[in-house]
Amino acid sequence: MKIKENYAAIERTVALVKEKFGADSKIAVMFEKCISNTLQTTIKIKENDTVFVITGDIPAMWLRDSACQLRPFLLFAKEEPELVELVCGLIKKQMQCILLDPYANAFNENGDGQCWDHDKTDMKPELWERKYEIDSLCYPVQLSYLLWKNTGCTEQFTGEWLEAAKAVIRVFRTEQDHENASPYTFERENCSFTDTLSRDGKGALVKSNVGLIWSGFRPSDDACVYGYLIPSNMLASVILGNIAEIAREIYHDEKLAEEADAFSKEVRSAIETLAILPAQKTEYYAYEVDGFGQYLVMDDANLPSLLAMPYYGYCDNKNERYQNTRKVILSDQNPYYFSGECAEGIGSPHTYTRFIWPMALAMQGLTSDSKEEKLKMLEMIADCDAETNLVHESFHVDHPEEFTRPWFSWANSVFCELILDYCGQKVTL
Prior knowledge:
By secondary structure, the chain is mainly alpha-helical.
């Protein structure tokens, strides 16, 4: 296995983008650079046919980020067997990571003890960080499913994959009763309160056994305020349905299929019952709840988000509750929605006030039916790149030259996916 300098399917798409936007347009130039940057600078082929994908300027692999980084390449993999092999190699590595520790979110390359910090939790030498996040377990499953649906490939569905999928279900079941059943704790010393868990590492208190799954941290790697993180529960419901279909069609395991399908429906029912804000004129989703009646109204730029519901398959973008939620989070009702002289969009408590995330702008375009809105988001991202021709984590809405993370492959990939979407090429869910 190796990464080629050129792939015919990618070269044809680059030409299509140049034709669509103009060969010298900023969007076309950025697409060519961003798609190449992910492929040529973040992927490492290992000896055992696994693939390790660093997030960019941090030399570690996040389960979530790595899946999102390679998602646009599913559109090229239909014609490029080598890209199928790359994605399969990543999935193999991700499943090994889940089996090593399903509570970890990020891993180092060589199992040599390198880590973000020496946290009070059950660290292993392969772990970069051990922040339990529901979505970290979801994305490798969804990438496996999307590879199957977009290319027909089933090589990823090994015995090891099946064991990892069962581990995901076990953890999710355990974390429905986090207070009484979970072995997981996490504490970090000398840090912001968002980087550690309260109550001696136990984290946000929730009402147990209400159907939702507890998460210690958000996809931003920030601690949850209330332990039931709704976008991540939504994604969990989706991938449990994926597991059910895979179990039935690939493994011919009807017992597992029925278990996963029932679990998916259970989580969805809990979301639709417990995550809707009470006493409002319209029905919309909270970002986090605790099961006792407390709600957090906001959205975060990191994926999965409330804005991204149609993107990861929880509902379509015409769903009334989704549209109501979209209006709330794309307004000043969301405390992390910022509007300025150069741009407006969703930011994150993970970054500075009045900094918005290109990833959220891209997601606003990807979840819209309006070509005009899609183009507006593309132009806003391109205009605010600080003349780097790459996409950053966040930038100031009044001063785009002020940005965080010069090399952030996840954002590059989501931007590329919006361009592909605008050109009529979409990942099949």
